[in-house]
Amino acid sequence: MTAPADDGVLPDRLIDAARRVIEENRAAGRRIAVAESCTGGLVCAALTEIPGSSDVLEAGLVTYSNEAKAKLLNVSNDVLDTFGAVSIAVAWSMAQGALKVTDADVAVAITGVAGPGGGTEKKPIGTVVFARAERGGDPSDVVADKRLFGDLGRAGIRLQAALCALELLLPPSDDGTP
């Protein structure tokens, strides 16, 4: 009996981005971690599609609820209450927390509003916030970004968010740019 064809369920461009993250971080000798909320593990799913990803991927934490963000990543309830789950402060705390609970060299966090509900005037559907923290980095040097993808539909927003997160996981190039 022959093995079935590998017709992966994830889009090729997501797998291609994940492959680049694994290959470049392996070459750089870096371990990575991901703290996901609105993407619900999509980034880790893409990374683990790549054979040998265990050389690079340290951990993935899906912290969908505020309680999970607080308990698993040590995000302060004060930060959650003050800024809301979809904020640079929370994403940054998630990334820092992922570094604290793993042995990764770099961590990326993703939190956002994928819809179809949950959007507000200040944080409409398609608002996603990212943060990257590096072990040994200056905690006051916040590397974070907020993107407004618009209402691409839940799957479209999650895909765009996962692609952005993977981009943030790439090691800096020789000229120092990510």
What is shown here, in short?
This protein is α/β, with parallel strands linked by helices and 178 residues long. It has helices at 12-28, 42-48, 66-73, 77-83, 88-101, 154-168, and strands at residues 32-36, 57-62, 106-112, 127-134, 143-148.
What is the molecular shape?
globular
The proportion of strand residues reads 15-25%
Terminal Cα separation, in Å?
45 Å
Please list the strands of the largest sheet in the order they lie side by side. Answer: 2-1-3-4-5
Radius of gyration: 16 Å
Note the run of SSEs as H and E.
HEHEHHHEEEH
Poorly predicted sequence stretches spanning 5 or more consecutive residues: 1-5
Largest sheet: 5 strands, mixed
Q: What's the tally of helices?
A: 6
Helical content, roughly?
Answer: 25-40%
- Beta strand count: 5
Describe it for me?
This protein is of the alpha/beta class and 178 residues long. It is 38% helix and 18% strand. It is built from six helices and five strands; from the N terminus they run αβαβαααβββα. Strand 1 (32-36), helix 2 and strand 2 (57-62) form a beta-alpha-beta unit. Helix 1 crosses helix 2 (42-48) and helix 1 packs parallel to helix 6 (154-168). The longest helix has 17 residues, at 12-28. It starts with 11 loop residues before the first helix and ends in a 10-residue tail after the last helix.
Give short descriptive properties of this protein.
178 residues, alpha/beta, five-stranded mixed beta sheet, 6 helices, 5 strands
Layout of strands and helices, then pairs:
Blueprint: H1 12-28, E1 32-36, H2 42-48, E2 57-62, H3 66-73, H4 77-83, H5 88-101, E3 106-112, E4 127-134, E5 143-148, H6 154-168
Parallel strand pairs: 1-2, 1-3
Antiparallel strand pairs: 3-4, 4-5
Helix pairs in contact: 1-2, 1-6
